[in-house]
Amino acid sequence: MKARNVVIVDGVRTPFSKGGKGKLEAARMDELGAQVVRALLARNPKVKPTDIHDFGIGLGSGAPEASTPNYVAHLAGLPAEVCNFSSNRACAGSQETAARIAMAIALGEYDCGISFGVERMGRTLMGGGAPRATTRRDSFNPKQLKMNPEQRNMPADHFQYFSVPIPDYVLDSPPGASMVQTAQNVCDMYSFTRTELDAFSMRSQHKLAKAYDAGMYKEEVMPIEVEDPVFDDDGNWLPNEKGPMVTLDRDESVRGNTTMEGLAKLPIVKGVQSWGGKELMVTAGNSCPTNSGTTAILIMSEEMALKLGIEYLARVIGWGNGGVKQQLMGIGPVVSTKQALKFTGLHPDQIDRVEFNEAFACQVVATLKEVGIPESKVNVNGGSIGIGHPIGATGNRLIMAVARELRRSNKRYGLCTQCIGFGQGMTTVFENPNAPK
Ligand SMILES: CC(C)(COP(=O)(O)OP(=O)(O)OC[C@H]1O[C@@H](n2cnc3c(N)ncnc32)[C@H](O)[C@@H]1OP(=O)(O)O)[C@@H](O)C(=O)NCCC(=O)NCCS
């Protein structure tokens, strides 16, 4: 089999709203998703709906009305003959979906596909769905909290990826850690200070607000009309009450007025502990929020793009997936990025732009140190601390952002990367062949 070039043609998304309390709370994700897909096709009139071979959905928990792969494709008006599937690599759900489509195109199975991502999160990470009664058959299995020696011990190739050992107290801590706890574990492993994490977060919020003000998000974020949700005094959405229609054209967690003083006042997230007795550091200010939103990108063989006369954004040139301890899931991108660079034969210095999902400031700072990419090349238009991270929808956002930014800045190589719950990282590498070498 011969591999063909694969390109990212375009990408569009809804604004991301605050999980459980934002303007998307009353919205149907299947309808919003269909709107996003229709907008993607309307912006690319050279591509006919019958040209789409495969429609993939990336999700974590998704949203019940939109998680069945065919639902959104049908509402978007795609022909019944378009194939559809879903993939769940938790936080990298839509990055995985895009990879699957790109791989099928590279191997010549078909020429064109859409990667769609969707998530509706609640006010807490897992608070999106209705409570469900469990039985002895499907309740949480306490064995998930036990480890065999191989699962507990530091891996033999650890120092191939990391410059510091994993503290024993982290290795001995329970594997099913919450995401915020895994962030504290990363802080402990790297002995970060709260100031450096808050400073990173403040810079991220400032870059984002500046980019929004400069109109940099106009191509990526599609303004939408939604019903203003009505909440009770405890913040619960009241489904039987209807608010007026309002326009949402901006991510809801952008905070351009973020200051170090404001961040320093934020409390530590409840329930987080340091197994090594170190300073607690994880706050709402240096973490991504919980969010809802949908994303879609159009992926094609370069051959087809050239035939149709389409000016694409970037080529996909490689991937990396890497596993780490569950308790340190935030440093998954160290492994996946080093593997992706090896796979593509690129040196970190050759990477001009990175779109790094800022799940937590600590895991981005740690990864950049380990991989050797300066912050000046990373999330130049802001990141998920302010944009938000609607789990399954994020991968597509990272892809469209880095592909667009490579083209805008006329830079050649870029990558996107993200950590993944339960201890993984995923990285995709891109090339803008029109940029100077
Ligand atoms: C960290 C977390 C627990 C915080 O939850 P929360 O307290 O409900 O957080 P919010 O985002 O609503 O922020 C709470 C308050 O902090 C303050 N705040 C947040 N960011 C701030 C900033 N940059 N400057 C000043 N204040 C800020 C605000 O007062 C905010 O309230 P408001 O939104 O009503 O203005 C939650 O966002 C979370 O779980 N994030 C991680 C999600 C995750 O794990 N995703 C997967 C990663 S792999």
SSE order and pairing:
Elements: E1 6-13, E2 17-18, H1 29-42, E3 54-58, H2 69-75, E4 83-87, H3 93-106, E5 112-120, H4 149-152, H5 158-161, H6 168-171, H7 179-190, H8 194-213, E6 224-227, E7 245-248, H9 260-265, E8 291-301, H10 302-308, E9 314-323, H11 332-344, E10 351-356, H12 361-371, H13 384-387, H14 391-409, E11 413-420, E12 424-431
Parallel strand pairs: 3-4, 3-5, 10-11
Antiparallel strand pairs: 1-8, 1-9, 2-8, 5-8, 6-7, 9-12, 11-12
Helix pairs in contact: 1-2, 3-14, 11-12
The site of coenzyme A has 22 residues, from α7 and α9.
Defining traits:
single chain; 437 residues; alpha+beta; Peroxisomal Thiolase, Chain A, domain 1; ten-stranded mixed β-sheet; two-stranded antiparallel sheet; 14 helices; 32% helix; globular; binds coenzyme A
Overview of the molecule:
The protein is an alpha+beta fold. It has one domain: Peroxisomal Thiolase, Chain A, domain 1. The chain has 14 helices and 12 strands. The strands form 2 sheets. Strands 1, 2, 3, 4, 5, 8, 9, 10, 11 and 12 form a 10-stranded mixed sheet that branches. A two-stranded antiparallel ribbon has the order 6-7. α3 packs across α14. The longest helix is centred in the middle third of the chain and has 20 residues, at 194-213. The mean pLDDT is 96. Bound molecules: coenzyme A. Coenzyme A binds next to α7 and α9.
